[in-house]
Specification:
Radius of gyration: 14 Å
Largest sheet: none
Helix content: 55-70%
Structural class: mainly alpha
Number of helices: 4
Number of strands: 0
Length: 103
């Protein structure tokens, strides 16, 4: 079976490794956000967009523009919460694995 350049699947699952990385990163940020004790004005927006990212990852190959939009909304919603910086960086790195949106 031929695969696109740079695209491998995770052994035995047929899952694109980029999707697996996105699932892992989103799950980590969702856990850290849930455990974060402070309330902030846009927390619900961050939670909603993380749920959308998780759904996109569960559905297979997500659309890059939608991924980037959700990432932007999450970053804007939790941007000043330094305790979540590393986990947010993980989500950004996972989204970056999908490349730029096609024009």
């Amino acid at each position: 079976m031929l695969r696109g350049v740079g695209r491998r699947t995770v052994a035995d699952t047929g899952t694109d490794p980029r999707v697996a990385e996105l699932r892992t990163a989103v799950a980590r940020l969702r856990r850290e956000l849930a455990a974060h004790p402070a309330e902030f004005p846009d927390r619900a927006i961050a939670e909603d967009e993380l749920a959308a990212l998780a759904a996109m990852a569960a559905g297979g190959l997500p659309e890059v523009p939608r991924l980037r939009r959700s990432l932007l909304l999450v970053a804007a919603a939790i941007g000043s919460v330094s305790a979540l910086t590393a986990a947010l960086g993980g989500v950004r790195a996972a989204v970056d694995l999908f490349g730029e949106p096609s024009r």
